[in-house]
């Protein structure tokens, strides 16, 4: 059977993907500017390490709780308008952190970022699933998630450099306000018909309780989300605490630590994400559940290198271990998210992403920065960061279990 033609022109699809990628880039810059400048923030707004973890987790808590709301709206309302609203809200909230003078004010500003990002993160992957047929979704999702490592790294680099040159308040303003331009541009994208490449493209979204029951009964979805919970716990801990670890434990200069870590994150993220998209599509039809297997294997292979990243004393060896660990970790970004697109019907796809966001952040990076901070307060940060490789191992094991235990995929 030939591939269906799209109701959206090629040029409109290219424009939408470019814009969604640019917004996702800003998304991660705005997420990770706080870890880059947090030591400077603590000089003006005193906080314990536990409070530091809470401040870094604040947006995650609101983000995950708001995601089901936008998930339901995304399955029933205009996705373009919701997306533009979300980008505008999180951009204003990011800039608002520049005016915080108390710990509560900082937490409130970062929490508001989560409202806007909830709209974007639930809707954008579902849109991509409707722009592309199954055979091309893996590459499309990998291209979209290239913004994850690049944006995260730019958050560290820009945050650190702007903080060094003009202060942390200027850093929040500089990365927050440009988002208003992207919010306006989001109104220009062409929405694809929901499920245009699926078997029932015109199906209406089922009632909310029916959607939740269907997701709970979907074994492939449940296993994928379960692995993502552990993976997100580890990745959130690594992303939020690595700069502080390098400065406090390894006694690196703050700007240098953020720049080197950011540069390695860009390179490893580009390599890993592109390699994951390519390998995932090469494995289709050759092994059962190729995306789950690839995600599990790459994450388990990252564990020893993550341990070395936190234990090697030699800076060159330590950075080499960081590079290999991050490459393997980012390799599963596209494949794991492709599974979430493929295994959920189009009529409930946005809600499927929303529930996955709620669960993986509730049990993952919403709690991991604070838990690592609390362990660091009670023992040492050196011991606390070893939770990162432990949870990478758990996530990889769950994904490999799913690739072997789930029934073979039906031909697609």
Secondary-structure blueprint of this entry?
Layout: H1 10-44, H2 49-76, H3 79-96, H4 103-131, H5 134-144, H6 147-166, H7 168-176, H8 179-186, H9 208-217, H10 219-248, H11 254-283, H12 290-311, H13 315-330, H14 333-342, H15 349-362, H16 368-378, H17 381-384, H18 387-405
Helix pairs in contact: 1-4, 1-6, 1-7, 1-8, 1-10, 2-4, 2-15, 2-16, 3-4, 3-7, 3-8, 4-15, 5-11, 5-14, 6-7, 6-11, 10-11, 10-15, 10-16, 10-18, 11-12, 11-13, 12-13, 12-14, 12-18
Task: Give an overview in words.
With 412 residues, this protein is mainly alpha-helical. The chain has a single domain (10-190, 206-405), classed as MFS general substrate transporter like domains (Growth Hormone, Chain: A, Up-down Bundle), CATH 1.20.1250. Helices cover 79% and strands 0% of the residues. It starts with 9 loop residues before the first helix and ends in a 7-residue tail after the last helix. 56% of the residues are buried.
Which key terms come to mind for this protein?
412 residues, mainly alpha, Growth Hormone, Chain: A
Point out poorly predicted stretches: none
Q: What is the highest CATH level, the class?
A: Mainly Alpha
Helix content: over 70%
**Number of helical runs?**
18
What share of the residues does DSSP label as strand, in percent?
under 5%
Category from helices, strands and their pairing:
mainly alpha
The 3D shape can be described as globular
Order of helices and strands: HHHHHHHHHHHHHHHHHH
CATH topology: Growth Hormone, Chain: A
Number of structurally distinct domains: 1
